[in-house]
Amino acid sequence: MIFDTHLHTEFSFDSAEKLEAVLASAKQKNLGVITTEHKDLNYLEAVGFPIDFNVDDYFKAYAPYRSENYLLGIELGLDRGYTAENRRIALGYDFDLVIGSLHTMAGQNLSSRRFFQGMEAGNFYRQYLTYAKEMVEENPYIQSLAHLDYPSRYAPFPELFVEDYPEEFQGLFEALLAADVTLEVNLKRPLEGEVGRSFRSIFTGYQKAGGRFVTLASDAHIAEDIGRNFEDALKLMEEIGLKVCYYKKRERIISER
Predict the structure, then answer these.
(1) Which of 25, 103, 182, 239 has its CA 20 to 30 A from that of 6?
(2) What does the chain look like in DSSP terms, one character per residue?
(3) Which intervals hold domain PHP (predicted)?
(4) What is the predicted pLDDT for the residue at 169?
């Protein structure tokens, strides 16, 4: 079964979706799902309101629904100074999948358009890719690195291409492979135009560097978005030569259609 490995419900600050609706949508689409609620410990510095949830309550509410088709995960916000506490959370609970995300860089909110004012694209992307590499190295307990294109959604810059930053991408890919962390295909945006060309560049570069596996992620916040853009992603990954996987009890499982 193909799994949607990154989605949110009412335990996340930016979703009001019920688990029952998620499971019904997943069943209708013949997909497995992993809920991955937001937990960013530096929320006060980043955006000024809680990106947090009570993990004990999460397990109490959702663990009874756990099955072969529904698994429990978390999306941890990676940033310097929070590694020890993130590790404690990740290893202290029975998660199937721990996603690492870069919503911030050194405490700066990467979804804030004001943050990018006056910046030059090349300088920012070089810093960002280097920071992503360092975060993977500091947090090797995660299973996947989410939405590498996250700042591209908000910054007034061109999309990311490996050809523009070969050294920085190579460093990141080597860090992912050394830690056995899977690169996520985040499908919040359709694989069209420059976005599609960027994803082809990034995941081709990842494969050439030795990458073998990817996770598919709708990053859905409402049930109807589960599995969005998956068919295009599956086709692209097949063309590139990457295998789609998911995680159960933090062990990689190759997906079969």
Answers:
(1) 239
(2) --EEEEE--TTSTT----HHHHHHHHHHTT-EEEEEEEE-TTHHHHTSS-----HHHHHHHHGGG--SSEEEEEEEEP-TT-HHHHHHHHHHS--SEEEEE-SEETTEETT-GGGGTT--HHHHHHHHHHHHHHHHHH-TT-SEE--TTGGGGTSSSPPP-GGGSHHHHHHHHHHHHHHTPEEEEE-SS-S-HHHHHHHHHHHHHHHHTT--EEEEE--BSSGGGTTTTHHHHHHHHHHHT-EEEEEETTEEEE---
(3) 4-186
(4) 98
For 149-205, write each residue's pLDDT tens digit: 999 999 999 999 999 999 999 999 999 999 999 999 999 999 999 999 999 999 999
The stretches in the chain having pLDDT less than 50 are none
Query: Quick check: 21 and 226 in contact, CB under 8 A?
Result: no
Question: Are 165 and 185 contacting, i.e. CB atoms less than 8 angstroms apart?
Answer: no
- Residue 42 has what pLDDT? 82
Residue 21 has, within 13 A of its CA and on its CB side, a CA count of 15
Q: Positive or negative, the Cα torsion across 210, 202, 183, 137?
A: positive
Amino acid letter, 217:
A
Structural contact between residues 31 and 227, judged by C-beta atoms closer than 8 angstroms: yes
Percent of the chain topping pLDDT 70? 97
pLDDT value of position 48: 62
Please tell me the total number of residues recorded for the chain in this structure: 257
Topology annotation, domain 3-254: TIM Barrel (3.20.20)
Q: Nearest-CA neighbor of 100 among 171, 44, 24, 41?
A: 41
